[in-house]
Amino acid sequence: xxxxxxxxxxxxxxxxxxxxxxxxxxxxxxxxxxxxxxxxxxxxxxxxxxxxxxxxxxxxxxxxxxxxxxxxxxxxxxxxxxxxxxxxxxxxxxxxxxxxxxxxxxxxxxxxxxxxxxxxxxxxxxxxxxxxxxxxxxxxxxxxxxxxxxxxxxxxxxxxxxxxxxxxxxxxxxxxxxxxxxxxxxxxxxxxxxxxxxxxxxxxxxxxxxxxxxxxxxxxxxxxxxxxxxxxxxxxxxxxxxxxxxxxxxxxxxxxxxxxxxxxxxxxxxxxxxxxxxxxxxxxxxxxxxxxxxxxxxxxxxxxxxxxxxxxxxxxxxxxxxxxxxxxxxxxxxxxxxxxxxxxxxxxxxxxxxxxxxxxxxxxxxxxxxxxxxxxxxxxxxxxxxxxxxxxxxxxxxxxxxxxxxxxxxxxxxxxxxxxxxxxxxxxxxxxxxxxxxxxxxxxxxxxxxxxxxxxxxxxxxxxxxxxxxxxxxxxxxxxxxxxxxxxxxxxx
Length: 493
What we know:
This protein has 15 helices and 15 strands. It is α+β, with helices and mostly antiparallel strands. It has two domains: 3-72 and 98-132, Ubiquitin-like (UB roll) (Roll); 145-490, Creatine Kinase, Chain A, domain 2 (2-Layer Sandwich).
C-alpha cells in the first residue's frame, strides 16, 4: 500500500493527475523538482528531488524533520523535543521524529527564474497517515469546511505592500561574509530603487521598472492573477494587487508570490522584503489589505450584498450597505479583533504600523470607504462587489492563519447575530478600543478569546502562542533593537 493510500489521498482523480504530471515532466526536460511547504511564519521550506524520483514521491512522499513546525522566526526550536512530557504537549513530535510531505500534483508550476525546475506544494502527515493538525494550511482547510457546510464560499482579493531594494554587493556582501555568519545572520546591505514620498508617481515607476518587470513576469508566468503594480508612498515601497479568488487559492497564491518574488529578484541583484517596517529611519510601513466576501457556492450570489436600501436605517448603520449576514460578519471581526491581531500581524515588527493618520488602523472601528478604519466597507445596495476590507494585516503574515481567523471570527458574529456599532467618520479620535500594541498583548488576547480557541483548537492556539512568545521575548532581550529587526526579519521574510 502506498503512503498516498494510507493517508486517504489516493483517488482515481489524483492517480490520473499524477500520471499526467509525470508525462509532462518527461516531455519538458525538467531536471529538478522543489517540494515546498509553508511553515508557521509563512516561509516556504522544502526539499529538492531529481526528476527520476517524482513517481516515488507522488506515491509515498518524502521525509521531513518534524521540528520544522516548531521553529520560531529565528529558526530556533521553541519546544524541548528530547525531554520527558513532549508527547503530552505535542503528540507525535518526540525525538524530532520524521513527518512525510505529500505533494499535490494539481499545484505544479514550472519556475520561471531558474532552469528546468518545477515546484509542487506539499502538506505534512504523520507516519500512520494522519494529517498533522498543526499545519497552517490544514487549519485553513478546516475553517473552509465550516463555510462549505453552510453552502458558502469565501472570496478574497489581495493588496500587498512590500519593499524592493538594490543589493550593493550581491556576490560578496555582508550576508555572505563567512566571518560575519551568525544565527540569524546579517542582512544584505542595500540601496533604494526609488526615493519615495511621491505616491503613484509615474516617474518613480520608471526608475523602478527593472525590478517591477521581474515581479510582473514572474507572477504572470506562475499564473497568479496580478492586476497591477504600483508605487507606494515610502522609499522603495511598492504594491501588488491581485484579482479575487477563493480563499484557499488566494492563500496559496500569496505564499507562492512572496517566495517567487524574493528568489527572482535576488538573482537579478535585488532584495525584496515583506516585513512591515524595514529597519531604516525613513520608511513607511507596509500593510496587507484583505478584501473578503462570502458567496453562495451554488449560485455565486454575494451573501454580503444588500439587495435594496432599507427604509429608516441611518447612513452609519452597517445594514445600509451590508446584508444582515454581512453586518453580523463585520461585527464578528470587530468583536474578536484583539485576538485576530496575533494572526494578522504576526511579527513583533508589525506593531509599529498602528499609528494615527498614517492610513493604517489604530482603533477597532469600521467605516464606509474609510482607509483610516480597521475595517473598510465598500459597496452599496445592489452592488455585487460589496465587500469588507480588513486593513489589520501585515504582508509577512501566514496567509492560511490570516484567512482562517477571518472565517472563524466572521462566523462567530453570524451565529451570535451580532450587531456592529455605527461606522466611524473620525477613525483616529480618542475613545475607541485600540488594537493591541505588541505581539505579546495580541497573543494574550488570542489565548483569552474562547470562541477562537474553540474554533481553531486549543492545542493549536497553545502551540502558536508558545512560538510567538519566544519571538517577542527575544526582541525584548535584544541589546540592539534595530539589529534584531534586520537579522530576524529584513534578511529573511
